[in-house]
Amino acid sequence: MKEMTPLERVVATIKRETPDRVPVILYFQSAAQFAAVRDDYTWQELLSNPTKLYRNVLQQHEVYGADNFFLPLDFRVEGEAFGSKCEYLLKCGGGARMPVVTQFAIQSKEEIDDLEIPDPKKAGRCPVILEAISKLSKKYGNKVPIVGFVNSPPDVATDIIKGHYSTVLPMMATDKPAMHKLLGKISQYEIEFGKAMLAAGAHALATVGGGFNNLTIGPDQFREFVAKYQAQIVKGVAAPYCFHQCQNATPFMEDMVATGAGAIAFHELVDLKWAKEKFGSKVILAGNVGVSESNSVMYGGTPADVEAATKKAIEIGKPGGMFWLSAGCEVHHALPEQNIYALIKSAKKYGAY
Amino acid sequence: MSTETISRLERAVLDMDEQMARTAANDVLTQKLDVVGAINNGLVKGMKTVAMKYEKEEIYLPQVLASANAFYAAFDILRPHMLAGATSSGKKVAICVVEGDIHDIGKNLVKTMIEANGYTVIDKGRDCPVEDFVQTIVDEEPHFVAMSTLMTPTMKSMRRVMEGMKEEGVRDGKKVIIGGGPVDAEFATEIGADFYGDDENEGVKWLKEQERRGG
Questions:
Q1: What residues does B147 pair with on adjacent strands?
Q2: CB-based burial of residue B127 (10 Å sphere; 0-12 exposed, 13-18 middle, 19+ buried)?
């Protein structure tokens, strides 16, 4: 089969056609630090300057060979748009690499009523993201999928209200009306932010649900506070969408599929074989070479180990199509860089249809 | 002792009702009830039920943290009236989320359960610089050291704390427990910690076991 462009490859999977090979779709986030160090950018410079962000994100495809671009690279964009203030910790190597909210937009749930929904074309760093997407689109818009990242509404809530998770989690138990009001406002904003990224040139959107996972909430809470709002966003933006859930999403997979997202992605704790059998004909599955656990292959293995794990994932996911090879979560900066190369190289080696 | 007031303390924790907890705590003082008894038979009893339900996955962190808020709403009122050391063995626990990580839900949960079981907790919060935490261990001489992280990259901060404790000569005589999503018993052994706790209940059980053994 003639070699496809990454965009043709991904579109083929979305249309349920056979691509030339399995696409490699990555959430390239804090691993951007490798390139930032080479380019001598601090995180703050990288995330605040559209040209630097553009140059960095380019490397996801041009240097590493991923079949997509993914941005923004951090989780704080929406919280800042709502008015929270961040500080950047410079000790990148220790893991304190992303902006951290130090001043919250609202101090208590009593202020939710007055919380204004920002304009994504003006608020916080959103204009930086939109400009970077526009630059990527000019160069790669007809070749490589540009995926805009929309943070999960409950995670955004923790960046808006003082107390972070310690405020938001109990609210889910003791003040559901306030919680829903806040999540409703965030989702409204996310739809507009998503549409703005699409208008700037993004081909698709993705959400990486982080803190509200099987370690923190149960299936009913996931349905009520996560999936419900994710479904609203998917419907509201009306674009190709990938929904990733961190940690062990096994109990939530039915609800993830029910959001209407065309693809779902999941952590290495989910059994890929089980997911393929149960959901493989309903949605595109993206997964799930180990990247997050202390014993994960991407973190602690050799390139040869990564190749073996990638081969195994492709053997499970590839038959019948509707599969993107991905890491179990974000591609992060504590990984040996050679393992990122190994993942992508192996996917190309074993992924041909 | 007024069992009705004590029952209200327990009920407040189970119902996640901070206002009820404050009212009941003030009633304990007004009625001049035994404060330690009220804490143990009301608040701690309630939290133990909450922990049991959590363990059985009947409830999840939103309810547990809301119950913990009710627990502290009452406990903060009653604490100044406790006789020093009356409910605890006098053992101190230094706890933190290690440098680089800001996820503190699990740490707060562990802290609540440790405190509810009568230990004195020195809480160094989240993203605690390695050097600060080691200095706290030097200054406060806790019997137990507890660290958590939810992220793989920050596991190395735990190792640095262990190294710092050795360098400062404060490793001996202290038991170290670690917890959090990416770590496990193997990692605990690798860095020289004494125990990996899968959850707060396991952690508290281990602390008590160490005490029983004279640790």
A1: B96, B178
A2: buried
- Distance from C-alpha of B111 to C-alpha of A25, rounded to nearest angstrom: 40
Q: What per-residue string of b and e applies to A156-182 under the rule 16 or more CB within 10 Å gives b?
A: bbbbbbbebbebbbbbbbbeeebbbeb
For residues B40 and B24, give the distance between their C-alpha atoms in angstroms, rounded to a whole number.
14
**What is the torsion angle, in degrees rounded to the nearest 10, for the CA atoms of residue B120, residue B125, residue B128 and residue B131?**
-30
B198 CB near a chain A CB, below 8 Å? no
- Give the strand order in the sheet containing B175-179: B120-123, B92-97, B144-148, B175-179, B195-196
Q: Is A294 helix (H, G, I), strand (E, B) or coil?
A: coil
Q: Could you report the predicted ipTM of this complex, rounded to two decimals?
A: 0.90
DSSP state of A118: P
CA A241 to chain centre: 10
- Which residues in chain A are contacts of B183 at CB distance < 8 A? 294
**Cβ-based neighbour number of residue A318 at 10 Å:** 19
CA distance A109 to A247: 28
Question: Helix (H, G, I), strand (E, B), or coil: what is residue A288?
Answer: strand
> pLDDT tens, A266-285?
999 999 999 999 999 999 99
Nearest to B69 among A170, A293, A294 (CB): A170
pLDDT in tens, A129-182: 999 999 999 999 999 999 999 999 999 999 999 998 889 999 999 999 999 999
The pTM assigned to this predicted structure is 0.86
HSE-CB at A328 with a 13 A cutoff on CA atoms is 27
Contact yes or no for B142/B171 (Cβ under 8 A) = no
- Rounded to a whole number of angstroms, the distance from the CA of B105 to the nearest CA of chain A is 6
Q: How far away is chain B from the Cα of A101, in angstroms, using its nearest Cα?
A: 10
- Cβ(A151)–Cβ(A183) below 8 Å: no
**Of A99, A64, A93, A61, whose CA–CA distance to A334 is shortest?**
A93
Q: Which residues pair with B122 in a beta bridge?
A: B94
Euclidean distance between CA atoms B167 and B70, whole angstroms? 41
Strands A284-289 and A323-327: parallel
- B60 with A221: Cβ contact below 8 A: yes
In sequence order, the 6+-apart residues with CB closer than 8 A to the CB of A292 are A246, A267, A268, A299, A328, A329, B152, B182
What's the token pair of residue A20? 């030339």
For every residue of B129-160, DSSP letters joined together read -HHHHHHHHHHH--SEEEEE-SSSTTHHHHHH
Comparing CB atoms, the residue among A169, A247, A294 nearest residue B65 is: A169
Q: Please indicate whether, in this complex, the C-beta atoms of B182 and A169 are within 8 angstroms of each other.
A: no
- Kind of pairing between the strands at A99-103 and A85-88: antiparallel
The whole-number mean pLDDT for each consecutive block of 10 residues of chain A, a chain of 353 residues, reads 94 96 94 88 90 96 97 94 86 57 95 97 96 98 97 97 93 98 98 98 96 93 98 98 96 98 96 97 95 88 97 97 94 91 96 95
Give the residue on B whose Cα is nearest the Cα of A179.
Answer: B62
Instruction: State which residue of chain A sits closest to B69, comparing Cα positions.
Output: A170
